[in-house]
Automatic annotation (TrEMBL):
PANTHER family: RNA POLYMERASE ECF-TYPE SIGMA FACTO, RNA POLYMERASE SIGMA FACTOR RFAY-RELATED. Residues 9-61 form the PhyR sigma2 domain. Residues 100-152 form the RNA polymerase sigma factor 70 region 4 type domain. This is ECF RNA polymerase sigma factor SigR. InterPro entries: PhyR_sigma2, RNA_pol_sigma-70-like, RNA_pol_sigma-70_dom, RNA_pol_sigma70_r4_t2, RNA_pol_sigma_r2, RNA_pol_sigma_r3/r4-like, WH-like_DNA-bd_sf. GO terms for molecular function: DNA binding; sigma factor activity.
């Protein structure tokens, strides 16, 4: 058993060199070598001493590497966000995300508030015109708009900005 461990230890530098060449990543290579050594020690009873230990160790390491690559393909590529360069032009996603968030928030409004809001803001109708379509007094329409806007501000975390309000 001592011969096995001595031979195992003698092969560590070669295993590390090979693992680093395979992975091109020092940390992953060290993890791969550690996994290889653990597997070899745990299964030393399976080793048939017909020849040197080195080919058996390299076979274990190669198979572990192949398995990890297959697993990585199933999981997808992991990106280090710190290594990703900042784009020169801001991406349009925040605007799209804000619109999607607003659309979801509008969908959660009570129907009476949603109808009032969409007629005035989306369709651009005057308060009197929207009120007539809904068959309600103008004051009721304004009240529903106020509640709808307050709910949307709460749901989206947007502060009230007087210059963005629709005045009819």
């Amino acid at each position: 058993m001592v011969d096995f461990l001595d031979e195992l230890e003698a092969n560590v530098p070669a295993l590390r060199r090979y693992a680093r060449a395979l992975t091109r990543d020092i940390d992953r290579a060290d993890d791969l070598v550690q996994d290889c050594l653990e597997r070899a020690i745990g299964r030393r009873g399976l080793f048939q001493p017909r020849g040197p230990l080195r080919p058996w160790l390299f076979t274990i390491l190669t198979n572990l590497h192949r398995n990890s690559r297959r697993e990585a393909r199933r999981q997808g590529t992991v990106l280090d966000l710190d290594a990703v360069a900042e784009p020169a032009i801001p991406a349009p996603q925040p605007g799209h995300m804000a619109l999607a968030e607003l659309a979801r928030a509008i969908d959660t409004l009570p129907l009476d508030q949603k109808e009032a809001l969409l007629l005035v803001t989306l369709e651009g109708l005057a308060y009197a015109e929207a009120a007539a379509i809904l068959g309600i007094p103008t004051g009721t329409l304004m009240s529903r708009l106020g509640r709808a806007r307050a709910s949307l501000r709460t749901m989206t975390g947007t502060p009230a900005e007087p210059h963005l309000r629709t005045v009819k």
